[in-house]
């Protein structure tokens, strides 16, 4: 066996495992004092662009929390930046783009020809992290979905109602598709090069697909995710995880799009998702991240409910339904990981 612990990869492929693997979205981050110690000395973008620092914080949750997979420390916004839209990460505000997409000529000006050169620092971070991990656990790579990236490129930062993005797709449908096409092309190059650099699986974070109506989700988000998954998997065997938050209305369509794993938020049940997808995909999730503020016994009860709901059998990767929140006590994350590792054994006998 290539890895000391390959439970995560086996679960992605719905192969037999002796327990349920677990990792946590946004596991390398501010809830860890060890992350904050490094972050105090460098700003966020410097950390992302310095392979030594990125690899160090990537491995922290493996050592400290005991997760079954690492996810490369980076951000989804490296893609818009490489395409020519620079951003700042403003303390306690979030990302702010200097320039936004407003019209056809802004889209034409976006560069997709130099993605691999511009993002060489990510591939270097992947290579260094693989060396340092020394096959202890697999390494996940990720990208934002074209639609989620488009929201940042149009809104210029985070948004509550996505008015500019929705206006754009309603009033400039052809331009919206042209923009999504260009982002998709960039993401395919990016994920392919990341696999080449050594990642063992890839996750597409579609954090905002759920703000769209179903027809718009299918037309402006899933269609492009499908293109990415199919194109990347045409030449690579690494499993692809699709996380479209808030889209229980389209789980069957996500399975049809070729996802190996569907990552679910906490508002749907794994048992329903299993039924809807006909058991074709592995499922990842789906504890409400706020549960980690509860008492220890309550955390265990809620985690048990999820294991029970998935039931006996393979193809479940335990995770939160979205990223871990920055003010969570790391001891609670560790408690969850330890509990799932032990409690899940009986579902794999
Ligand atoms: O999962 C991991 O541990 C890998 C690291 C990771 C980060 N961002 C690091 C990060 C991943 C997978 C992301 C993805 C990401 N980035 C998403 C999609 C996932 C999701 O949560 O929906 C989105 C929407 C972004 C964009 C982004 N990055 C925002 C809106 C912000 C500011 C808000 C926030 O959470 O602070 C970031 C910053 C960011 N990305 C931080 C980290 C650790 C915090 C930066 C800091 O140290 O101050």
Q: What's the quick description here?
A:
The protein contains 16 helices and nine strands. It is an alpha/beta fold. The protein has a single domain, classed as TIM Barrel, CATH 3.20.20.210.
Strand percentage = 5-15%
CATH architecture call: Alpha-Beta Barrel
Tally of separate helices: 16
How do the strands line up in the largest sheet? 1-4-5-6-7-8-9
- Give me the secondary-structure category: alpha/beta
How many DSSP-defined strands?
9
Helix content range: 40-55%
Explained architecture:
The chain has 349 residues and is α/β, with parallel strands linked by helices. The chain has a single domain (7-347), classed as TIM Barrel, CATH 3.20.20.210. The chain is built from 16 helices and nine strands. The strands form two sheets. The protein has a seven-stranded parallel β-sheet with strand order 1-4-5-6-7-8-9. A two-stranded antiparallel sheet has the order 2-3. The longest helix has 25 residues, at 173-197. The mean pLDDT is 98. Bound molecules: coproporphyrinogen III (CP3). Coproporphyrinogen III is lined by residues 25-30, 39, 44, 71, 73, 75-77, 89, 94-95, 142, 158, 205, 207, 323. The site of coproporphyrinogen III has 21 residues, from strand 3.
Which tags fit this structure?
16 helices, binds coproporphyrinogen III, 7-stranded parallel sheet, TIM Barrel, two-stranded antiparallel sheet, alpha/beta, 349 residues
Please give the structural blueprint.
Blueprint: H1 7-12, H2 33-41, H3 44-49, H4 51-64, E1 70-71, H5 78-82, E2 87-90, E3 94-97, H6 104-108, H7 115-118, H8 120-133, E4 139-144, H9 146-155, H10 163-171, H11 173-197, E5 201-206, H12 214-235, E6 240-244, H13 251-256, E7 261-263, H14 270-276, E8 282-287, H15 296-310, E9 316-320, H16 330-343
Parallel strand pairs: 1-4, 4-5, 5-6, 6-7, 7-8, 8-9
Antiparallel strand pairs: 2-3
Helix pairs in contact: 4-8, 8-11, 9-10, 9-11, 10-11, 11-12, 15-16
The structure holds coproporphyrinogen III (CP3).
The site of coproporphyrinogen III has 21 residues, from strand 3.
């Amino acid at each position: 066996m290539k890895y000391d612990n390959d439970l995560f990869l086996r679960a992605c492929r719905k192969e037999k495992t002796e327990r349920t693997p677990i990792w946590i979205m946004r596991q390398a981050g501010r809830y860890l004092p060890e992350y904050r110690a490094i972050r105090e000395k460098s700003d966020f973008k410097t950390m992302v662009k310095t392979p030594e620092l990125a690899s160090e914080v990537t491995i922290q949750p493996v050592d400290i929390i005991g997760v079954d997979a690492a996810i490369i420390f980076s951000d989804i916004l490296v893609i818009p930046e490489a395409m020519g839209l620079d951003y700042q990460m403003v303390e306690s505000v979030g990302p702010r783009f200097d320039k936004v997409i407003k019209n056809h000529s802004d889209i034409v000006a976006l560069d997709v020809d130099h993605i691999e050169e511009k993002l060489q620092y990510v591939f270097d971070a992947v290579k260094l992290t693989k060396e340092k991990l020394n096959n202890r656990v697999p390494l996940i790579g990720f990208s934002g979905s074209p639609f989620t990236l488009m929201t940042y490129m149009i809104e210029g930062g985070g948004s509550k109602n996505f008015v500019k993005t929705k206006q754009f797709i309603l009033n400039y449908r052809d331009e919206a598709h042209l923009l999504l096409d260009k982002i998709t092309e960039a993401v395919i190059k990016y994920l392919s090069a990341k696999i080449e650099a050594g990642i063992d699986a890839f996750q597409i974070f579609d954090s905002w697909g759920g703000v769209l109506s179903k027809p718009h989700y299918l037309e402006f988000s899933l269609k492009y995710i499908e293109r990415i998954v199919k194109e990347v998997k045409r030449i690579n065997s690494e499993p692809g995880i699709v996380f479209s938050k808030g889209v229980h209305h389209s789980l069957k369509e996500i399975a049809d799009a070729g996802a190996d794993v569907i990552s679910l938020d906490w508002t749907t049940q794994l048992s329903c998702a299993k039924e809807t997808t006909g058991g074709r995909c592995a499922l990842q999730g789906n504890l409400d991240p706020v549960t980690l503020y509860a008492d220890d016994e309550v955390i265990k009860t809620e985690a048990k409910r999820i294991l029970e709901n998935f039931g006996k059998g393979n193809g479940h990767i335990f995770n939160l339904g979205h990223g871990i929140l920055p003010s969570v006590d790391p001891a609670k994350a560790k408690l969850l990981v330890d509990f799932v590792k032990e409690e899940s054994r009986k579902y794999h006998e």
